[in-house]
Design brief:
The complex is a heterodimer of chains A (about 200) and B (about 180). In chain A, helix 1 (about 10-20) packs across helix 2. Chain A has a single domain (about 10-195), classed as Rossmann fold, CATH 3.40.50. In chain A, strands 2-1-3-4-8-7 form a six-stranded parallel β-sheet, with helices on both faces. A two-stranded antiparallel ribbon of chain A has the order 5-6. Chain A is of the alpha/beta class and about 200 residues long. Chain A is built from eight helices and eight strands. In chain A, strand 1 (about 25), helix 2 and strand 2 form a beta-alpha-beta unit. The longest helix of chain A is centred in the last third of the chain and has 13 residues, at about 140-155. Chain A has helices at about 10-20, 30-40, 55-65, 75-80, 85-95, 125-130, 140-155, 180-190; strands at about 25, 45, 70-75, 100-105, 105-110, 115, 135-140, 160-165. Chain B is α/β, with parallel strands linked by helices and about 180 residues long. Chain B has a single domain (about 10-170), classed as Rossmann fold, CATH 3.40.50. In chain B, strands 2-1-3-4-6-5 form a six-stranded parallel β-sheet, with helices on both faces. In chain B, helix 7 links the parallel strand 5 (about 130-135) and strand 6. The N and C termini of chain B lie close together (about 10 Å). The chains are: A alpha/beta (about 200), B alpha/beta (about 180). At the A-B interface, helix 3, helix 5 and helix 8 of A face strand 2, helix 3 and helix 5 of B.
Chain lengths: ~200, ~180
């Protein structure tokens, strides 16, 4: 029987980002971008509005470039399914400062709530593990979430979690979508004057 | 390539250009034409070689690298260009540097017909996706072409692909010469 899903996506993302400190956050297109923005905008957030399948690899490039910063990728199940191979590429890099969080509602939320393959049984955390990311788990409860939040920031990466969340509608909260502004804001916050060299 | 020919100099020249430009992340899906350059980048402690499962991963990696203050390059063969098209919206829309070095297949004396459809359309596909294309078929001009690509990509924040003609690389031999 299908396990009951209890976690709310907005509360989940807000709980994760409450402890972010100086962490850098890359979001996958669609609802995860809205969730991260709703939890509180930051110049250290980079919201993708497209580039589907590319969130985790954007996080890898950033994590390799900034080995002293924690990098968090927050994306959705549909976006992650489009870039599954990137989990193998990330595992091969053994990048210690990268954590990937998949907010898994088992549906394509922006296009009419069509079920994704996670609804059909595809197990993202097991896939990540099989591709070489050993610190990998599926989270379903508040207790599991509370246990894993510190690990997202402190454990040697790469770390991967798929968090099962409800499909209940949430208020639309749209972040800025001008890519040139977002990238300049992000680089300025991270690199200071060197952002414009 | 004939058995007794001296190894080509251009992979070393490209490596020197990348090094001089402080390119730190080298992402690739391999091509035989890039094998020597890939070897040089793996051996270079100032560079991080990132093996990809598909080429568009390298487009996203380049965006993340540059957001974090590092330069990157994507090495691939022409067949990989088709895989990149939608992901190229990322550097395009954010006006970020993006540099790809593409070794061509499907043209000069190609043996494998399956390489021809993408090879014939590589340049047009890149242009259609908004990428600035520099092509060279002259082995003496590869280094300067790469240097020009580096300039446009990293100084003018533009997506650039440098195409290296199959005539330069040599046609892949499927049958042993001896």
């Amino acid at each position: 029987m299908r396990k009951r899903i209890v976690l709310d996506r907005r509360e989940t993302v807000a709980a994760i980002l409450r402890d972010r400190g100086e962490a850098l956050v890359v979001t996958g297109l669609g609802s995860p971008s809205w969730d991260v923005f709703a939890a509180g905008d930051s110049p250290r957030n980079f919201y993708l509005w497209g580039a589907m399948g590319g969130a985790a690899m954007t996080g890898l490039g950033l994590a390799l470039a900034q080995p002293r910063r924690r990098v968090l990728v927050v994306t959705g199940d549909g976006e992650m399914l489009m870039g599954l191979g990137s989990l193998a590429s990330i595992a091969a890099q053994r990048v210690p400062n990268l954590a990937i969080v998949v907010i898994d509602n088992e549906h394509y939320g922006e296009t009419g709530m069509q079920p994704t393959h996670t609804r059909g049984g595809a197990d993202l955390a097991a896939t990540a593990k099989a591709l070489g990311i050993s610190r990998s788990a599926t989270l379903r409860t508040r207790a599991e979430l509370a246990r894993w939040i510190p690990r997202l920031y402190r454990e040697r990466g790469p770390v991967f979690v798929a968090i099962k969340v409800k499909t209940d509608p949430v208020p639309l909260k749209l972040p800025p979508r001008d890519g040139t502004w977002l990238r300049s804001r992000f680089r300025e916050a991270l690199l200071g004057a060197a952002a414009h060299e | 390539m004939p058995k007794n020919s001296t190894p080509p100099r251009w992979p070393g020249e490209i490596h020197a250009e990348l090094r001089a430009a402080n390119v730190r992340q080298v992402a690739y899906v391999p091509d035989a034409g890039h094998s020597e350059l890939i070897r040089l980048c793996h051996a270079d402690r100032a560079m991080r070689a990132v093996t990809l499962t598909t080429e568009e991963e390298g487009v996203a990696l380049a965006a993340g690298a540059w957001l974090g203050g590092e330069r990157s390059v994507l090495l691939m063969q022409s067949s990989g260009v088709g895989n990149c098209i939608n992901m190229l919206a990322l550097p395009q829309e954010c006006r970020m540097p993006f540099l790809a070095l593409v070794t061509m297949r499907g043209e000069w004396g190609e043996f494998n017909p399956w390489q021809v459809p993408m090879g014939r359309r590589t340049e047009a596909a890149l242009e259609a996706a908004g990428v600035n294309v520099f092509r060279t078929d002259d082995v003496e001009r590869i280094a300067e072409t790469v240097r020009a690509g580096i300039g446009l990509a990293f100084h003018s924040y533009r997506p650039v692909a440098v195409l290296i003609g199959q005539r330069v690389i040599g046609t892949k031999q499927f049958v042993k010469a001896d």
